[in-house]
Design brief:
This protein has 6 helices and 5 strands. By secondary structure, it is of the alpha/beta class. It has a single domain, classed as Rossmann fold, CATH 3.40.50. Strand 4, helix 5 and strand 5 form a beta-alpha-beta unit.
């Protein structure tokens, strides 16, 4: 199955300088994007406009690493979990996404994550 969705954690991933630009670049080539966060709201009120979906645990009632939050995010993108890549800085959350059927990336730094995204989506992003 082709990868057509990118789901990103906010704290520890999207708040790292450069990651929001990477997400915009991936979305710009037609990949559906979502923020998946264990929060009640996002610190940046403009952030939802840059993504196709936002799934917040405080709103939906379940949190990472519960598989249902990843499945819900995929549904909101109109995709199957197997079509999605999830990026988080916490291994347990990545493992939860993998258990839900997604490809997982354990984020440690911008350069490594960009390299993995480029390989998975067959893109040239530049970091």
């Amino acid at each position: 199955m082709d990868l057509r969705g990118l789901l990103l954690d906010y704290a520890g991933v999207l708040d790292e300088p450069g990651m929001a630009s990477v997400a915009r670049a991936v979305r710009g080539v037609g990949v559906r994007t979502a923020v998946v966060s264990n929060a009640d709201q996002l610190a940046d009120p403009a952030l939802p406009e840059a993504f196709d979906a936002v799934v917040l645990s405080g709103v939906v009632g379940f949190a990472k690493p519960d598989a249902e939050i990843y499945r819900l995010a995929a549904r909101r993108l109109g995709l199957e979990p197997a079509e999605c890549v999830f990026v988080d800085d916490l291994r347990r959350n990545v493992d939860g996404a993998v258990d839900a059927g997604m490809v997982g990336i354990h984020h440690s730094d911008l350069e490594s994550t960009v390299m993995e995204l480029q390989a998975l989506f067959d893109l040239e992003l530049g970091a």
